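Q&A FORM
Asked by: J.P.
Topic: structure of Mitochondrial import receptor subunit TOM20 homolog

PROVIDED:
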Amino acid sequence: MIGVWGTLKVLAAISGMVFMGYCVYFDKQRRSDPDFKRKLHERRNQRSFASVKSPSSVPVNEKDVEMYFMTQIHKGEGLITNGDIEGGVEHLINAILVCSQPGKLLQVLQNTLPVEIFTMMLIKMHAYEAAERSSPVLVEEEATSALE
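REPLIED BY: S.T.
REPLY: Here is the structure written out as tokens.
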């Protein structure tokens, strides 16, 4: 005779095997979905570029936009001065995104920033722009090859 504990152990083993079988089946179905890779790239893209805010995430009030713009400019300048070039460039890009005249701001930044930093900013802006249209793998390759 197996006993009560033996029966429970057998039932637990069978339940575990059924659960594992379900997990394997579900994972196979999920991976065989033709849109799986596209959706995965989109999720990774959203996470990787979450640090740069889109203009839609900025308050609509004109005074708030101006305050946000000035804050981003000051943070960017401060970080670049302290040696955090990448962080400063991201804040400057945020300022450019909400600027009413981005062309003029780019001209001012071109005249005031060192060439290497301005070039890095343009490359990142191009990468963010391209990320909206393509997969994050291509954007990372473009940014990496452009920096080399």
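FOLLOW-UP: Residues 41-147 form a domain with the Mitochondrial Import Receptor Subunit Tom20; Chain A fold (CATH 1.20.960.10).
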